[in-house]
Amino acid sequence: MRSTSSFLVVANRLPVDRVGDREWRRSPGGLVTAIAPVMQRRDGAWLGWTGAAGEELKPFDHDGMHLIPVPLSAREVELYYEGFSNATLWPLYHDVVAPPVYSRVFWDAYRAVNERFARAAADVADPGAVVWIQDYHLQLVPMILRRLRPDLKIGFFLHIPFPPIELFCQLPWRSEIVEGLLGADLVGFQRPGGASNFLRLCRRLLGLHTHRNEIYVDGRTVRVDAFPISVDFAEFDQLARDPRVQDRAKEIRAELGDPEHVLLGVDRLDYTKGIGQRLKAFGELLDEGVITPDEAVFVQVATPTREGVPAYARLRNEIELRVGRINGEHGMLGRQPISYLHQSYDREELAALYCAADVLVVTPLRDGMNLVAKEYVSCRFDLRGALVLSEFAGAADELRQAFLVNPYDIEGMKRAMLAAMRATPHELARRMRSLRRRVATHNVDKWANDFLSALEER
Ligand code: ADQ
């Protein structure tokens, strides 16, 4: 087995999930789909955690990818992953929609784990190798790695929003994080707004000189840019055309009682996704009699996530209480206006749900991109279906023909949901054609290629 590689991806998680005791399965999701071919072409390696605390495994090959496990103890999962990553950075970067926890113990663990990832990468990178570091869990890795291995080409991509300076500066370790990121040759964000927030922060907080999208630091230049991530359009388009998926979509509608309108939400059960707000809007439309439970049903799929972080357990209770109230008020025996599923589905079932839904409601209070919106568009080859989309999702920069909403404005959301339900087939087709054109030409391959070509030019 090779001991070094010329292309490395460094991410919190490895791109595989365990099935049973010994087997692995490639994780679903765009990032893996986009990067796997690049890894195979370049003989690359992926460093990350297996997802099991305290597990120490040797590197192994899976599905044409060389995987290098980085171990985390149970205490590190609690302090670095659930703590600093998901109770400090996640809420801070999402407009403090929940109060971030600032804990020195979390920070110490974050630093130690970032150091471990950087050392592991330094040990296996060929001279001059390209290293692509992913996401908010590993923002210190670029600088630690540069100090260990100045010969490498280092790229960093942030999958979540980068907040304005006024919010970011709450962080007691703000300078360390910015300096950590500046170890990269290229720092990528989802939206141009994130890139300009970062440039401004470098000027104001560290007094660095910037010109356009470049920052001058220690005699080097760091390029900063937006690379909006996307989905594998062709894969979803094909999946949706599969007769089995189409049959399943009809079956889903029949199981829901063949209502006139099926509205759908698909999210991780996260407080940034605005699930409560959209259910409130739907509930008020029922309360006011503007729609009836015979006419419209709402299917909300909420995948369990980060269950070790207290704010997530609270959110689950709030959402389940709201669903219970609305169903209690407006349901009938055997028929409920909201079908709430706290479960995860495979891609075929997800595609069938997208095909069954007349309206997809995506209302995050803040979201880096939101791939669910792009998956829905990719599945609607029939040019039917409406997308209600929050202005605060990165996807709103590109998907201008969606019914755009401010998720804090309940009346506005009610109007947009009604407009989406009542739009003519002609209007829906016009909007969907334009949405599909965008996602088809800006798919996930383009995202990975754009980022890597920009990095290689450095
Ligand atoms: P997430 O916050 O996880 O991603 P999103 O972009 O919507 O949000 O991706 C979720 C993925 O999980 C989608 O591919 C979706 O199909 C899948 N999924 C959701 N619910 C599911 C269910 N019940 N069953 C099966 N699959 C389900 C973070 C950022 C986003 C950014 C992405 C990628 O928060 O803003 O778009 O990374 O950069």
From TrEMBL:
InterPro entries: Glyco_trans_20. The keyword Glycosyltransferase applies. GO terms for cellular component: cytosol. GO terms for molecular function: alpha,alpha-trehalose-phosphate synthase (UDP-forming) activity; trehalose-phosphatase activity. Its EC number is 2.4.1.15. Keywords: Glycosyltransferase, Transferase. It comes from the Bacteria. The keyword Magnesium does not apply. GO terms for biological process: trehalose biosynthetic process. CDD domains: GT20_TPS (cd03788). Belongs to the glycosyltransferase 20 family. This is Alpha,alpha-trehalose-phosphate synthase (UDP-forming). It comes from Thermobispora bispora (strain ATCC 19993 / DSM 43833 / CBS 139.67 / JCM 10125 / KCTC 9307 / NBRC 14880 / R51).
